[in-house]
Structures are given as structure tokens and as C-alpha cells.
Penicillin-insensitive murein endopeptidase (Vibrio gallaecicus), 272 residues
Amino acid sequence: MFRFITVFLGCWLISTFSLATPWESFTTPSTQPTQSIGSYANGCLAGADTLPLQGEGYQVIRPQRQRHYAHPNTITFIQSLAKELQEKGMPRILIADIAMARGGLFSFGHSSHQTGLDIDVWLRVTRLPLSEKELENPRATSVVDIPNYRINSHWKPYHFDLVKSSAIKEDVARIFVHPVIKEVLCATETQNDREWLRKVRPWFGHHSHMHIRLKCSEEDIHCIEQAQPPEGDGCGEELASWKPKKGQPADKPNYIKKAKKKPELCQALLRE
Ligand SMILES: [Zn+2]
């Protein structure tokens, strides 16, 4: 039951149909002062910034989707994480969806990413920069053997460092990864440094990317935080309960996505 409640409240879903949303029609941020408004899955973003399409240690993939608008804290977070990883000699990171120009609901993909605080980072490793053509239509690398519910040979020690380096950051509220990935992280971490695992939450669909969710900025008084993850490293029973029983779909259950009524401050962004 717990799992289904979590599923319902959580970050990821692939809709089985495309639903046009008014948020997609905006190609410019609003002129209001910057603010994340509402919750991750029902909110918007005033006065967004854009993440430059490339920088030290990262590139933005599928820039044509125009989902690289973000809260300024998110931009700083990505730039400093990418730089830090590069300085440690790790491959560049590939940044996928963040948010649209005014946040809000995507017509396909995740139901969250609405307030400029959610970031998808691919698990594909790339030492060489991708060409413009590849960036527009990149090939994803899954690290999970979905039908057999186990990690595959694409998983490298790099991935452990990538998730851990992100999770230990103060600004991070949660990171979503496929439950098989969380099992590997749980098994790899030593006994005395497990606090960061609490933030890493199992979620179907996240086997070729991880989803980083940042906390609300303190100044954003209309930004709604999610409750803290349960105490502990989350490596026990709840994680085990994600393993599909015989006959259940191996990875992607269908969820119906419904547009919810937005906070009034978000309605104002649509009128500007
Ligand atoms: Zn995501």
C-alpha cells in the first residue's frame, strides 16, 4: 500500500496519451521576480533563468524541447556539480529535462518538474562531448536489465560516485532512481556512511536517468516542500517491496495524468 501511495504522490510518470497544456505555449519566462510557486507536481516558476546549453563538465540534451529553464539555484547547483565531477576526472554529465519557461505541466513525460527544481541527469557516460546532432536526438543507456530485475554491465563505479556526490549536497531533497539501482547503492555503501541513502528513493522508470529534486529556496515563500523521506537508509523492506511479483509489469505501470487546479499565483503567470 505504501508503495502505491508513494507512486501516486511521486515524480515520474509516462502518460499514455499526449495532453496539451497551456504552459507549453510560453517561450519566455515571466517578468516577475524569481520564485518557485506551489509543489513539484502542481506549481509553476516565475522569473525563470536558462541553463546555458553547455558548460564545464556538462551538456544539455534535446535543447529543442525548451525544458532547460530553471530556478537560479538549480542552475548554480548543476554548474557546480558538473565542475566538481570534472575536477575529479569524471565524465561530463548530460542534463535532460528541467522545466519550461514558466514551469507548469509538461504534455508528456513527468508530472513533476513544474517549479524549476527538478533535474533529470542521464546515466549515460560520455567522455567526448556530443555533437549538436547527437544532442538533439541522443541515445539513452539503461543500467538495469528490466525483465530480470537486476543491474546490467553498463553500471560502473562512476554511477555510484555520481549519485552519492549529488545526494550529499545540502540543497538536494531527494533523488529518484530505479529500485534495482538503489539496491546496488545500498550494497556498495559502507556501514558508517549511509545518511545520504535516505534521500535516494526508488522509482520505476529511472534506469537511464536519475532525477534530482532540490529543496525550495528559503526566499520562495509560496514554494511547497515535500515531506522528508522516512528515517533510515531505505534499504530494507520497502525497497524489497518494489520487486514486481510474477505477472506484474516489469517496470512501467500506467498512471493517468490529470491537470490539477493551480495556485492563483500560477494562473497569473498564464495571463501575463
Ligand atoms: Zn525527472
Notes: The radius of gyration is 18 Å. Residues 2-271 form a domain with the Muramoyl-pentapeptide Carboxypeptidase; domain 2 fold (CATH 3.30.1380.10). The longest strand covers residues 172-177. The pocket of zinc ion is lined by residues 11-12, 97, 110, 113, 118, 120, 211 (CB under 6 Å).
